[in-house]
Design goal:
Blueprint (H helix, E strand, L loop, with lengths): L21 H13 L4 H5 L7 H21 L14 E2 L3 E2 L16 H16 L17 H29 L3 H17 L5 H4 L3 H8 L6
Antiparallel strand pairs: 1-2
Helix pairs in contact: 1-3, 3-4, 3-5, 4-5, 5-6
């Protein structure tokens, strides 16, 4: 039977955290708490741990997760079906990175996500931004890097919900997508990574999936 979320199919190469490092231990802690089923507890900073280390580890994990999610819908998301990166008719996202694309440019959804994943990957691989060892300090403006990454990763979820949700429901994978996004949402709320205005595109989804938790 075809599985919508094929664990072996990713949009881009998976980013790994080096074993034996502090971040790898935190990565294991994150996985363990996530396995408990309590998403609010899973996103909380562990006692006595450095917040930047926690943000770094989770940035990698969420990047990999969204990479997997989008990788599984690439056959449904093409330049023909999604000529613009958008979330419904009210929200359209243009790409700019300050280097190759210095001014926002209108691109198709798959092109936007490709550019986005390359942009994130480049930062994750940059030791001056995401150091992999404790002897290298995080940049003073590290949280700003993280906020920019999460703001744009949110847009991938927004596009999936607005333009590919019916396909996900037809494949019986609605609950899995909702759990992934709910985890993502609680994390960005816990550390104030994405503005409420940016999240307006998925406010109905957010209200629905968090209703039972008493947090909207």
């Amino acid at each position: 039977m075809f599985s919508f979320f094929d664990k072996n199919k990713t949009f881009r190469a998976k980013k790994t955290i080096q074993k034996g490092t502090k971040q790898y231990e935190m990565h294991k802690h994150a996985k363990a708490t996530l396995g408990s089923g309590n998403l609010k507890a899973a996103v909380a900073l562990p006692p006595k741990e450095d917040v930047n280390e926690w943000l770094a580890v989770n940035t990698v994990d969420f990047f990999n997760q969204i990479n997997l999610l989008y990788g599984s819908i690439t056959e449904f998301c093409s330049k023909d079906t999604c000529p613009v990166m958008s979330a419904g008719s009210k929200y359209e996202y243009h790409w700019a990175d300050g280097v190759r694309y210095k001014k926002p440019v209108r691109v198709s959804a798959p092109e936007y996500v490709d550019l986005l994943m390359s942009w994130v990957q480049k930062q994750l691989d940059d030791e001056t931004i995401f150091p992999s060892t404790v002897d290298v300090p995080f940049p003073k403006d590290f949280k700003n890097y993280v906020k920019n990454i999460f703001r744009r990763l949110f847009r991938v979820y927004a596009h999936i919900y607005h333009h590919h949700f019916e396909k996900i429901v037809s494949l019986g994978e609605e609950a899995h997508l909702n759990t992934c996004f709910k985890h993502f949402y609680y994390f960005i709320m816990e550390f104030e990574l994405v503005d409420q205005r940016e999240m307006a595109a998925l406010q109905t989804v957010i209200s629905t999936i968090t209703a039972k938790d008493g947090r909207k």
